[in-house]
Design brief:
Elements lengths: L16 H34 L1 H9 L1 H27 L3 H28 L1 H7 L7 H13 L1 H16 L4 H24 L4 H26 L14 H33 L3 H37 L3 H34 L8 H15 L2 H16 L3 H26 L1 H5 L1 H26 L8
Subcellular location: Cell membrane
Pfam families: MatE
Protein name: MATE efflux family protein
Length: 457
Amino acid sequence: MAATPSQHTESMTSGAPARSILKFAVPLILGYLLQQMYLIIDAAIVGRWIGVGALAAVGASSSIMFLIMGFCNGACAGFAIPVAQAFGAGDHHKMRCYVSNAGRIAVVLALVATLLSCLFCEKILQLVNTPADVFHDAYVFLFLQFCTIPFTIAYNLYSGQIRALGNSKEPFYFLIASSFLNILLDVVFILLLGMGVEGAGIATFLSQAFASWLCRRFIRRRLTVLVPKGDERAFNNRKISILLNNGVPMGLQFSITAVGIIMLQSANNALGTVYVASFTAAIRIKYLFTCVLENIGVAMATYCGQNIGARRLDRVRTGVRDAMGIMMVYFVLTVAVIYPFADEMMMLFVNGGEQEVIANAAQLMRISNWFYPALGVLVILRYSIQGLGYSNLSMMSGVMEMIARCGVSLWLVPAWAWLGVCYADPVAWMMADLFLAPAYLWLLKRLRKDHRIPSAA
């Protein structure tokens, strides 16, 4: 017998804010850690069993994937914000109307993004100065990644809606299943069948399809409060407009940020294959650590969305403060791990004889680590502003990041070479914070003046 919907939803509008944030964030963090561990294992299999050139081929297109998938995933996250606000307000009819219309937008987005990406795959790789010796493998891998776009959008849409109801556990379980499937398929396709980077791409395609199917099946069987019925399935122009007003700015925020990342990767690619491999190895490990901060931010989007829907601005302020404290505790832990062991971490990807790759990658990891508090402030404030329904405002932080990375690519990398690449992210994070901190304070002041939202409990 199916469980009642209340067993799979949780309100974040009461109780200790820090507890609510952690309870929601921990499954998110574990899920993304697992996902990043898969990416590390994937890169390790490619780098150690195929070669440094293949590792560079996989990494040469990472910024491109961030540009395209960042927009799609950001848009899906934005579509979940009205769902969270309606759930916080207790209006389930409106919530299901948003779910229905978000599905329509997602179908169009998937078709357009997949078609355009596959058509221009080769031109894109040329644009980012992909080294000639890895161009073919990079093209094959990137094309297969583009083919997964519909499934990735489906997973992010469904999982975002599940999380909007305060449930971050089931998406975590689905990530576990799909990640283990991905690793298993990597072993079969790459190690047993010798398919090279094609095997890595096909494994990702199949595992993403599996994850999206699991989410849809869960909603249909266990979380029927999200399933539209009757007139809730109807096209609603106003709901479409609200969804786009939340989703498009969030998608553009990631894409705008990715423009700077692409320029940085293009500048780094021009340094040569060794530096492409160094960047790929460092980024894999860096994401393993920074995804914790990112998912504290993701938790804040749902937390703030539900609480602004329930008209609890007091809990928004307290939640942001508590999230900052959680972030600083985590930062101290990362320093204790990254600073002494960065070199050893890089040896997951390449043989010990590749000393230049190891040294470069470890240097990037250590430099970035000292600036994790800047990243923590960025994601907490950015996602909180998004959850409050002001995605256009948070998008401007992406513009600041883009400007910073473009500046580093144009001036710092030519002057400092690899060292300039190492400082690109810290400079971008600090530039975004210079915008987000005053923007958040201004927004709180504005919301306090809104008579619909009380400033105290």
